[in-house]
Amino acid sequence: MNANAPTLLVTGASGHFGRAAVTHLLDTLQIPAGRIIATSRKPEALADLAARGVTVRAADFDDPASLQTAFAGADRLLLVSTDALLEPGKRLAQHRAAVHAAAQAGVKHVAYTSLPSADSSRISFAPDHFGTEQALAASPLGWTVLRNAWYFENLAYSVPGALAGGQWFSAAGEGRIAYIARDDLARAAAATLASGETANRTLTLTGTQAFNAREVAARVAAAAGKPLEVIDVNVEQLKEGLLAHGFPPALAEVFASFDVATAAGDLGQITDDYAALTGRTPQTFEDWLARNGASLFAA
């Protein structure tokens, strides 16, 4: 192994995205396991990676003191955004602590998983992402911001229940989303981490097509063999429906903001940044449905 090769660290490695990024480092990019550090609040969940030779460490974003120790020795770090969505200010505080710890630990470059149009998006937690981007820009670190488009996998929050009743209530109007597979984005994150690129840059990673709700519903219905009608509602009606289905008020606000942002065009941009970064074309919706549709079809 090249003694001068950078050590690569992935946070949140027990989550879907972080684990996929580590897997792409190992299996797609053939990075030696000895150059990879995987961190998690639950390091015991990474025993299989440890068995492959990956260094596994505990890192708790609610314990900033743990982060500098966890990040020690890493040259390039993938900061996977945390899931603290419902407590205002918590997620941004976690991310700022991670940026500070990375700088203190001597990390040279951080890649961060952000959101399209983070500086202007109507999604309720967009300020967390933009605030993190600003923290990176103000730090001594090199950085790459990966503004990741909406996952196909996010359809699992709404489509199974909609298919069960045959109706999908939407306040997104004709707004479009340039969906992309989570695994494709994890591949892009791994490529960024392994690239050695030192320039500061912001990339918006999207699918090659953008779909409105009716176009999504038509494809899902055809793949599932079940009818699915989109019912247009306003945002207040959407929130009332979410509350009636047991959503906590804070979470109902978050989900309603997705439709507000979609209607406003915040998630519809298409770029070729993914292909430029990876040398590949992302999965199409049809291909993703063929491989993963079962996750949407069972209510």
Secondary-structure map:
Layout: E1 8-10, H1 16-28, E2 36-40, H2 47-51, E3 55-58, H3 64-71, E4 76-79, H4 90-105, E5 109-114, H5 126-138, E6 142-148, H6 159-165, E7 167-170, H7 182-195, E8 201-205, H8 213-224, E9 229-232, H9 235-244, H10 249-263, H11 273-278, H12 285-292, H13 294-297
Parallel strand pairs: 1-2, 1-4, 2-3, 4-5, 5-6, 6-8, 7-9
Helix pairs in contact: 1-7, 3-4, 4-5, 9-10
Domain NmrA-like: 7-289
Organism: Pseudoxanthomonas wuyuanensis
Protein name: NAD(P)H dehydrogenase (Quinone)
Notes on the structure:
Residues 7-289 form the NmrA-like domain. With 299 residues, this protein is α/β, with parallel strands linked by helices. Helices cover 44% and strands 14% of the residues. A 7-stranded parallel β-sheet has the order 3-2-1-4-5-6-8, sandwiched between helices. A two-stranded parallel ribbon has the order 7-9. The longest helix is centred in the first third of the chain and has 16 residues, at 90-105. It is globular, with a radius of gyration of 19 Å.
